[in-house]
Each structure stands twice: as C-alpha cells, then as structure tokens.
Amino acid sequence: MKNQKQKSVVKKRGLYIALALALFVGAPVLGAILVQNFTQWDVIVDVPPIVKLEGADEALSNGYLVVDLGQTISNNDSGLPTPGSGDVLLAHEEITFTCFGGDRTYYTDVIQLQNTTGDTWNVELIVEADLAGNPAFDDNFTTATGDADIWLFTSDQDSTGGAITEVPNPGNYGSLTEWYNAAGVNDAIQLEVVNGVMSVANASSGSFTIPTTEQRQLGLVVDCSSDMTAANDSGTFRITVQSTP
User: Which residues, listed in sequence order, are joined to residue 114 by a DSSP beta bridge?
Assistant: First the structure.
C-alpha cells in the first residue's frame, strides 16, 4: 500500500514537471507584453511670424502694378497617395507688373515683410514651384527676339517708419546702402528673358534678418528691350518667403 502511494506521488510530480515545462516553453508563443503610453499633441493657430503688406507703389502706378494679398492655393492634400479629403487653402499673394519696351521701370515699394513676433526671424526669398504644382516660372512671350531683365531687391533697413527712398539700381550695386548686401549681385533675385525665353539667373535672395516689429521692403526693377512691344506678352515667376526663428 505504501509503495502504491509513493508511486502515485512520483507520478503526480512527473505530471507537474511536464506541465511546468510546457508552460515555460509555450509562454513566448502564447503571450506577449504590451505597454501603452499616451501623449497629447495640441495644435494652436497663431498669426504668421512674417506677414506681407501692400507697398505704396500700387496706389501710385495707375494700374501698372497690382498687388493682391487675398488669393489662396490648395495644399493638394487630396492628390497625395496617403488618405486625405478636402484640400487646405494656403495664402498665395499675386503681383502683376508692367514693363515698357525700351525702358527701365522701378517699383521700389511693392511689398512690405513685417515681423509680428517678439523674436528676430531669418528670412530668405526663393524662386521655386508652389505646393499646388505650379512651376517656378512660365511665360507667354511671343516676340522671339525680345530680351528683359527682372531684379527683386530686399531692403537692408527697417521701413516701418517710412519707405526706403534709395533707388535699387542694378548697375550700381557697390554704391547702394539701403538694400540688402547690395555690393554683391547674387543677393538680388534675377530673372532673364532672352529671345523670348524666360529663365532664372539667381533664384535666392540669401538669408537676411528681420528683428522684432520691423519691416523689410521689396523693390522691383524691370528692363524690357525695345522690341518687346507685343500686346499681352507676359511672364510669371513664383517666390516662397521662407522664415526661421
């Protein structure tokens, strides 16, 4: 009787050991540890750090310069491969200017860039395609021999108290004092039209700073050759105002 009880105990111990081994071996397969941590992301809407204001030249140009700050473009979200419905509209300012065959035209106060924050911001103007898929530049020039030069200057002084009065003469960079890095030609954006074909000669203004509450003025200089007189000839270029604190 005693031997039978001992055999029964040994048998049960064997079953317990076998069960424990099965659980030990099977645990990685049958179960896993999942730990979740939760983070909240808050989206806050604020005024843009650099805003664009109409310059004074539009009111003085008799329609030859039109600055429209109320336009928008789509961010093209619904066209992306990731799910998205309904495109967000982003600010898209439009500037239309006229050049005159055989003349140089100055629009020295086209737009003011205003720093709305309490910090200094670094700003750069770049000729590039926009988010809606429009190219950096395009044209509708029909005069095969027509040439033109277009320069876009940025002031090197605060224009909050009044517009910059110095004329941004592209042929006299070294003597300019009120325009950003005017001694170096490559710090003015420049586009060219050669034989009716538009191209970008310098696509970036370089980085400049706008201290808190100050403004910088954008001035435009356009030369059109005397044979560029065809009605409705036009060109377009697009600029991103890029800013970092």
Answer: 51, 215
